[in-house]
Amino acid sequence: KPILLWFRKDLRLDDNHALQAAAISARPVIPVYIREPEANGCGPLGAAQEWWLHHSLTALQDSLHELGSKLVLRKGDALAAIEKLIEETGAEAIAWNRRYDPAGIAMDIQVKKALRDAGMEANSFAGQLLHEPSRLRTGTGTPYKTYTPFWRALEQSGEPPFPVDAPAKLDAPSHWPQSDSLGSWSLLPTKPNWASSFADIWTPGEAAARERLDDFIEAALDGYAVDRDFPDRPATSLLSPHLALGEISPARIWHATRGLPEKIPTDNIVRFRKEIAWREFCYHQLFQFPKLNSANWNDRYDDFPWRSDAELFDRWRRGQTGYPIVDAGMRQLWRHGWMHNRVRMIVASFLIKDLLIDWRKGEAWFRDTLVDADPASNAANWQWVAGSGADASPFFRIFNPVLQGEKFDPDGGYVRTFVPELADLDSKYIHRPFEAPENVLQRAGITLGEHYPLPIVDHAVARRRALDAHASLRNET
Ligand code: FAD
User: I need a surface site. Which of 138, 359, 362, 434 has the fewest CB within 10 A?
Assistant: First the structure.
């Protein structure tokens, strides 16, 4: 009798412990992916990530094919879909890799209980994180609330389990249950096709993820610690969308950074591992505080006097704020479904502190437009910038978008790529076009207010207003 192998955000064959268990179970294996409804909080994904999902499922179908298997696609409530598959196939067991978002956890508990009560074998496995969130605890047994001791504990807790290779073959059932066609799910945008430029830089699927990892280690890891902050340098791994849908495991990444040639200075390797650990720390936060994307971790911020200004929010979304580094970031997000980490911090600070717009609105926009949208990393980082999060950046640290631009994009290469109307502007003014003399603007073919907007707020004024708003909050209790 078959075993169902339930894929979720773990769309890979490599280092997949549920797959491994199914493969050695001596049962025919029926791989299945269920598109769960929004009502149970497990889906659908944001629109940009749905684009990714479509291509990732296609890649997974192809690699399962090579193992002599298939991927069965179903949609609807997970438990109902699984029960139907059991009825149709006579399956007696199911395996999956654990997920750590609150809705996913709740669903998995429900499914496991219902199936076990019905006499099924239902087993879940680790592998989406380096360590299970219940494992890393402080000396007094409580979860970590600050990153540095968390990192120390992670470092001291030993290497994560060594990754397991994909099986060479999967036993097929004598007959396959019906599958939805992927096309019928309409995951790709049609008119307008706003994802048309995604494929310029992205190839979804686990083979591309492995290639990305290898290229990064080969070409960029040496220098990562410094270069990672400069958005115009090809310095970061670009692994985040692959990690978000589980096309590569963090353990595979971690172990790939062991035993490297000595020419790569250790600080680069440590710095990269520390970022992988930030992802882990975000999941620990979500695990402890399921409302991470809807409520302030620190409830002192519950009374924050947010402003709601639809026009300003729209200017931010469209990259029309008049601050080039902010606009470049927001346009990179729209064009590629991704934004450089340094610039994410700058645009988030601008929304929250310069515009005084609730961080939750920014979190929701990112969730819909990022191909790497992640329930833990997105919410935790927005709260980090807002000052309301665990171990957050203090609210009074307000990024100056001009100085940030000048420091991290000194020649304006990043701005010129994503804000082409400023391409010919002198580097001296590339981050402050509103201060450029008329003849400099003229030479670059720019009329401010016509080709490129004037700033929608004066940063110095906005900064003072933000600090006043923050001062109006009750003191820390
Ligand atoms: P690299 O520098 O190569 O880092 C390697 C990996 O480490 C990343 O792929 C990612 O998994 C992890 N990582 C790096 N920085 C962070 C971080 N600050 N927090 C958590 N994990 C990190 N990351 C997401 O994956 N999904 C999100 O939805 C997301 N939303 C964000 C929202 C805001 C406001 C901010 C400031 C950051 C957000 N990040 C998010 C974190 C970070 O910007 C991205 O992980 C990073 O830019 C991805 O690029 P990379 O893979 O080239 O990173």
Answer: 138
Judge if 7 and 140 occupy the same domain: no
Q: What is the mean pLDDT of residues 190-200?
A: 92
Q: Which of 201, 377, 404 to mutate to test the pocket of ligand 1 (most atoms within 8 A of CB)?
A: 377
Q: Which of 129, 224, 240 gets mutated to test ligand 1 (max ligand atoms within 8 A of its CB)?
A: 240
Q: What is the ipTM of this complex?
A: 0.99
Q: What is the CATH number of the domain that holds 140?
A: 1.25.40.80
The whole domain housing 276 covers 129-162+205-288
Per-residue confidence (pLDDT) for residue 348, from 0 to 100: 98
CA–CA separation, 108 and 96 (whole Å): 9
Write the residue with the smallest CA distance to atom 32 of ligand 1: 378
Nearest to 279 by CA among 316, 258, 250: 250
Q: What is the mean pLDDT of residues 81-94?
A: 98
**Is residue 144 within 8 Å of residue 150, measured between CB atoms?**
yes
Cα 380 to averaged position of ligand 1 atoms, centre (Å)? 11
Active site residues: 275, 278, 306, 341, 359, 382
CB of 279 closer than 6 angstroms to any ligand 1 atom: yes
What is the spatial order of strands in the sheet that 29-35 belongs to?
72-75, 29-35, 3-7, 93-97, 121-125
